[in-house]
Automatic annotation (TrEMBL), chain A:
<comment type="subunit">
    <text>Tetramer of two alpha and two beta subunits.</text>
</comment>
<keyword id="KW-0547">Nucleotide-binding</keyword>
<feature type="binding site">
    <location>
        <position position="255"/>
    </location>
    <ligand>
        <name>Mg(2+)</name>
    </ligand>
</feature>
<keyword id="KW-0460">Magnesium</keyword>
<dbReference type="InterPro" id="IPR006195">
    <property type="entry name" value="aa-tRNA-synth_II"/>
</dbReference>
<dbReference type="InterPro" id="IPR022911">
    <property type="entry name" value="Phe_tRNA_ligase_alpha1_bac"/>
</dbReference>
<dbReference type="InterPro" id="IPR002319">
    <property type="entry name" value="Phenylalanyl-tRNA_Synthase"/>
</dbReference>
<dbReference type="Pfam" id="PF01409">
    <property type="entry name" value="tRNA-synt_2d"/>
</dbReference>
<dbReference type="InterPro" id="IPR004188">
    <property type="entry name" value="Phe-tRNA_ligase_II_N"/>
</dbReference>
TrEMBL record, chain B:
<dbReference type="InterPro" id="IPR004532">
    <property type="entry name" value="Phe-tRNA-ligase_IIc_bsu_bact"/>
</dbReference>
<dbReference type="Pfam" id="PF03483">
    <property type="entry name" value="B3_4"/>
</dbReference>
<comment type="similarity">
    <text>Belongs to the phenylalanyl-tRNA synthetase beta subunit family. Type 1 subfamily.</text>
</comment>
<dbReference type="InterPro" id="IPR002547">
    <property type="entry name" value="tRNA-bd_dom"/>
</dbReference>
<keyword id="KW-0963">Cytoplasm</keyword>
<feature type="binding site">
    <location>
        <position position="472"/>
    </location>
    <ligand>
        <name>Mg(2+)</name>
    </ligand>
</feature>
<protein>
    <recommendedName>
        <fullName>Phenylalanine--tRNA ligase beta subunit</fullName>
        <ecNumber>6.1.1.20</ecNumber>
    </recommendedName>
</protein>
<keyword id="KW-0820">tRNA-binding</keyword>
<dbReference type="Pfam" id="PF03147">
    <property type="entry name" value="FDX-ACB"/>
</dbReference>
Length: 334, 803
């Protein structure tokens, strides 16, 4: 009995499988319903009870060997088949990577800023790029002879005695006025958008750029909260270990006014770099939109997106942002 | 504006290093943009005496000098042509560092050296090497009377100084001088301000026989003080005065002009000194003219001064442009022996207008246009007179003329301590507040529980309201010291606006269609604008920055085409761009501003190859149908495919209408436009009016799952022969309308022209896909529908079913 089993085992081991036909022959001889493995188990009934365990174990080993040999041979055959392929089937043929879409770096930077302020509970609002004098200057407490109202600094679209002047907005702050006119406080919004200054196109200046404005008006808004908000922004934008400082500044539409600097390390060494201007909404601004400045206080801030994008991506020429050279755009991958 | 560290110390004792002072000034709101070290203390520099000069044995261009340094005599090699025995010369001894950097930016320290085999123990310096002037033609030769061995610092009477370039905000006219900056510093250091003006008494105006002064234009000149100093000797100023002025970048001129400049930078009172003998009729009249005036200023330039500008005139006419610059005709010169000192207050906006229109900003106009202290004029005049008398040996005429038609009194402003803490988020006590204010010379005249009445000094015209005082307290307290709030009381966040959500959804969608975002100019040239829209629609800048950027974009097309042209010129082959931006048109209705349509548009454009030539396939150019498919993908994603109506205009444009309004156009860019933008390639573009879609309520993203139909679709192919002029799009539309809901989709799988059809015929083969949500369709269900379609098409366009 054991000899018979060992004989099958030997046959399995010595069977040569070099092609599909031989593989099939192997299957028929050993693994089919009438194959040697199946018929080997038929012998079990003649085995005395006390030997059944030992023989059964051996038979199972042989059965496993047959299956194993078959599977191994099959994989080997497949592999050898793949060694032969047509010229156009060569999987190593180089391809061109698929053309992908991308966001402009200004929008990537803006998106980062937006995501931070969304987390800080701000809504996102918008307004026109072509503004009237009231929204761009008067309501924001710019005195009549302020230099920004000069043709040298601002693009005018209409300048007349009878009607309001129209300008390309010089900042996103006029949207503050629109928001406060439209809705009672509390207000908590950022306003991204394009703004314009009458400047020549050079590596450092351009006649258009992008800002993000912020406004929060409520009862009991404090300078402490403003600074806290700006610090949270700076930490989320530039890392939690960012070194910052707040210093007094001046804007017509906020009082007190501040600017925030962050410490910036570069090849030239470290220096303070201004990242935004801010302040508490000036009572005159509240008055121009009929908000009670005793009851409500508020803060506003503004930052330049172009500048942030240039810092972020190491862009040293502002014109690159508006040339739309595909070799530049391609670098801003998803 | 420049502030000198040494000069500040004249008014305040403080022990801050220059670096710390820089930081303190900045944190007070006097932002230091740049810090510069000027001059030198000349350590290891002495005055030496050249004893003997002999030839260098190994070098023609060098000589060897024995130089007595007081305590020793050393040999120094020198290459200067003018060195000779018995000269007194500045010597940098071994260990001295030359204060002027070398070409590479580093500083040379003198070591014991051998030059061509001969020892040299130091260096005889030129003026340029000492940073005293640009003269490097030879060594500096000093006065014989100076004792040999005197430290150079003593001999030259110079000092090292640090100068801060301060970017002064327009609300701080008081800080445009050293006393103002020192006052701010005293508020944070606690030191006592030493103000030389507090000891000067004003005198009654005493109409003087020597001069008559009158103000005709009292709106523009509120005060004019004149003091005469006689018997002056115009000379070079002493070193201390020259050092002050050179440190802040001013060129010393003479002891009279230098004093006026000194006072201006000390207390921010611009002064002018006239040569008394050149004043016609011995009278000064302050007036403005109704007409333009030509006038030669003391820099010998003839300027055309606009009508309405304020002048200082004598009996013959103008002698100075008030507050801006004096005239050549009354300038103090070497021969001057008697002067009139002018100390006046001019209206800031009047000076600003004049200075701006002349494009001439002077140290004087810079201060007047910000608004100087209207109370300081007489005191400043006395201080100047005393200094001039001291330096020139002159005699002050004790009579002062002080014409003061518009008086400014200090104002009272109420301040609540509770309001400070309310606005700043601080917990300041009343005492702290009073202390801060007193350092700024803001006196608290009375106070009850919470409310302080503050007297605002006249040098602070910017403080008129409680909030202005709160800023003063805040900046001195230092905003960085405000405690972080215990909690951040965020109001309940509001949902994102439909616009924001819609716009960002579109941006993401178009990017997923593999478009690259561009950012183009809002302003185009007139020529470019004319190619895109009629003049009636265009809005122009009245003061364009250049002719390239005069007109607001009426479409996004122009910017896209410029980007295409830019890239084609740089050999780019595959351009697939999009932009979202504002467009501007004159219109009957206004979006935000009356008469101006300002909409947000989306632009999608293609140019070049959709596929490059490679082993898989030949190159393939973009076609209008690639863009059409992408555009329809946008409509499909917005869920408006069924409600948007496409209308072909000719064969290069499709206009897509939503609710009967033009929502989008798809174009093969026409050749004229391409030529206008200098492009030699096929370009396709689609522009979509997002504002219009948003106004029609497309912004909301509402999605509901539709159950998937369990039954299979049934496809039926039908080819029709039609006249060539018949539009495939019209046929498809007709088919859809005739078939009704059972028809799920229509596509075209073949278009064919051939002689067997007839010369003016074509065949269009449609694949109709039917679906019923309740049963499996078979040919019997579909046949009647197909019949209906065939009959309809035959009737409307004479179409014949081919198969």
């Amino acid at each position: 009995m054991l000899d018979k089993i060992n004989d099958i085992k030997e046959k399995i081991q010595s069977f040569s499988i070099e092609n599909e036909d031989e593989l099939e022959a192997f299957r028929l001889e050993f693994l089919s319903r009438n194959g040697k493995v199946q018929s080997m188990f038929g012998l079990m009934k003649d085995v005395p009870n006390e030997k059944k365990a030992e023989v059964g174990k051996l038979m199972n080993e042989v059965k496993n060997l047959a299956h194993q040999t078959f599977e191994n041979a099959k994989v080997e055959l497949l592999k050898s088949e793949e060694k032969e392929f047509g010229a156009l089937e060569d999987i190593t043929l180089p391809v061109e990577s698929t053309y992908t879409g991308s966001y402009h770096p200004l929008n990537r930077a803006l998106n980062e800023i937006k995501q931070i302020f969304l987390r800080l509970g701000f809504n996102i609002a918008d307004g026109p790029e072509l503004e009237d004098d009231f929204h761009n200057f008067t309501a924001l407490n710019f005195p009549p002879d302020h230099p920004a109202r000069d043709m040298q600094d601002t693009f005018f679209v209409r300048k007349s005695e009878e009607e309001q002047d129209l300008v390309l907005r010089t900042h996103t702050s006029p949207v503050q006025i629109r928001l406060m006119k439209e809705k009672e406080p509390p207000l908590r919004s950022i306003i991204p958008g394009r703004v314009f200054r009458n400047e020549a196109v050079t590596a450092k200046s351009y006649f258009q750029f992008n800002q993000v404005e912020g406004l929060y008006v409520n009862v009991r808004v404090t300078m402490g909260e403003l600074i806290e908000t700006l610090v949270m922004f700076a930490q989320l934008m530039y890392g939690s270990d960012v070194k910052y400082r707040v210093r007094p500044s001046y804007f017509p539409f906020t009082e007190p006014s501040i600017e925030m600097d962050v410490w910036w390390e570069s090849e030239k060494g470290g220096q303070w770099l201004e990242i935004l201007g801010a302040g508490m909404v000036d009572p005159n601004v509240f008055e121009s939109v009929d908000v009670d400045s005793e009851k409500y206080t508020g803060f506003a801030f503004g930052m330049g997106v172009d500048r942030i994008a240039m810092l972020r991506y190491g862009i040293d020429d502002i014109r690159l942002l508006y040339d739309n050279d595909i070799r530049f755009l391609e670098q801003f991958k998803s | 504006m420049k502030i000198s560290y040494n000069w500040l110390k004249q008014y305040l004792d403080f022990d801050l290093t220059p670096e710390k002072t820089d930081e303190k000034l900045t944190l007070l709101g006097l932002e230091v943009e740049e810090t510069e070290t000027v001059g030198s203390d000349f350590e290891h520099f002495v005055v030496g005496e050249v004893k003997e000069v002999r030839a260098h044995p190994n070098a023609d261009k060098l000589v060897l000098c024995d130089v007595d340094l007081g305590d020793e005599t050393v040999q120094i090699a020198c290459g200067a042509p003018n060195v000779s025995a018995n000269q007194k010369v500045p010597v940098a001894k071994v260990g001295a560092t030359i204060p002027v950097p070398m070409k590479d930016g580093s500083y040379l320290t003198i070591k014991k050296a051998k030059l061509r085999g001969e020892t040299s123990n130091g260096m005889i310096c030129s003026e340029s090497e000492l940073g005293l002037s640009d003269d490097h033609s030879g060594i500096m030769v000093m006065d014989d009377s100076i004792e040999t061995g005197t430290p150079l610092k003593t001999a030259l009477d110079v000092e090292k100084d640090t100068v801060f370039e301060v970017a002064l905000t327009p609300n701080r006219p008081d800080a445009s001088c050293h006393i103002g900056a020192a006052r701010d510093l005293s508020a944070v250091t606690g030191g006592e301000l030493k103000n030389p003006y507090s000891n000067i008494d004003e005198k009654e105006s005493n109409l003087n026989d020597d001069i008559s002064i009158s103000i005709e234009d009292e709106d523009k000149c509120h005060r004019y003080v004149g003091i005469i100093v006689d018997d002056v000797k115009v000379e070079e100023s002493p070193n201390w005065l020259k050092n002050r002025l050179t440190a802040i970048g001013l060129r010393p001129i003479n002891n009279i002009v230098d004093v006026t400049n000194f006072i201006n930078h000390e207390i921010s009172q611009p002064l002018h000194a006239f040569d008394y003998d050149l004043i016609g009729d011995k009278k000064i009249v302050v007036k403005s003219y109704d007409e333009e005036k030509k006038f030669i200023t003391l820099d010998s330039i003839e300027r055309t001064v606009p009508a309405g500008s304020l002048f200082i005139c004598d009996g013959n006419g103008p002698v100075a442009i008030a507050g801006v610059m004096g005239g050549e005709n009354s300038e103090v010169t070497e021969g001057t022996t008697k002067i009139l000192i002018e100390s006046a207050y001019f209206n800031p906006s009047s000076i600003r207008k004049t200075s701006k229109s002349l494009a001439l900003q002077t140290d004087s106009s810079y201060r007047f246009e910000r608004g100087i202290d209207p109370s300081i004029q007489q005191k400043a005049a006395w201080r100047a007179a005393e200094l001039i008398a001291e330096l020139t040996g002159g005699t002050i005429n004790p009579n002062v003329v002080d014409v003061h038609p518009v008086k400014t009194e200090p104002i009272d402003v109420a301040l609540r301590v509770s309001r400070i803490n309310h606005l700043l988020g601080t917990e300041l006590e009343k005492e702290q507040v009073v202390n801060i204010l007193s350092k700024l010379e803001i006196e608290v005249s009375s106070s009850d529980e919470d409310k302080l009445t503050c007297i605002i000094p006249t040098f602070r015209p910017d403080i008129t309201r409680e909030v202005d005082l709160i800023e003063e307290v805040g900046r001195v307290y230092d905003y960085n010291n405000i405690p972080r709030p215990d909690s951040s009381p965020f109001i309940s966040p509001q949902p994102l606006s439909d616009r924001e959500e819609f716009q960002e959804r579109i941006r993401e969608l178009v990017k997923s269609l593999r478009y690259k975002e561009i950012s183009t100019n809002s302003l185009l040239s007139k020529k470019e604008a004319d190619l895109l829209a009629d003049e009636d629609f265009q809005i122009h800048s009245l003061n364009p920055v250049s002719q390239e950027n005069t007109t607001l974009r009426t479409h996004l097309t122009g910017g896209f085409l410029k980007a295409v042209q830019y890239n084609l010129n740089r050999n780019a082959t595959q351009l697939r761009f999009f932009e979202i931006g504002h467009i501007f048109r004159n219109s009957d209705e206004g979006t935000w501003i009356d008469g101006i349509e300002e909409h947000v548009h989306l632009y999608m454009g293609l140019c070049g190859q959709s596929k490059k030539d490679n082993w898989q396939s030949d190159e393939n150019d973009f076609s209008i149908f690639d863009l059409k498919a992408d555009l329809e993908a946008v409509f499909n994603n917005l869920g408006i495919s069924d409600s948007i109506v496409a209308e072909a205009e000719g064969n290069n444009t499709i206009v897509y209408k939503y609710a009967n309004q033009e929502a989008s156009t798809l174009k093969r860019i026409d050749s004229e436009l391409l030529k206008g933008f200098d492009i030699e390639a096929d370009v396709y573009g689609a522009e979509i009016d997002l504002t219009l879609l948003l106004q029609n309520g497309i912004g909301k993203k509402e999605m509901t799952y539709q159950p998937i139909v369990k039954f299979p679709t049934f496809e039926f192919d039908a080819a029709f022969t039609v006249d060539k002029g018949v539009r495939a799009g019209d046929l498809a539309k007709e088919i859809k309308e005739t078939a009704g809901e059972i028809l799920q989709s229509v596509s075209v799988f073949d278009v064919y022209e051939g002689e067997n059809l007839g010369a003016d015929k074509k065949s269009i083969a449609f694949r109709l896909t039917f679906l019923d949500s309740n049963k499996t369709l078979n040919i019997k269900d579909v046949e009647p529908v197909v019949q209906k379609i065939v009959q309809k098409l035959e009737k409307t366009v004479g179409a014949k079913l081919r198969s």
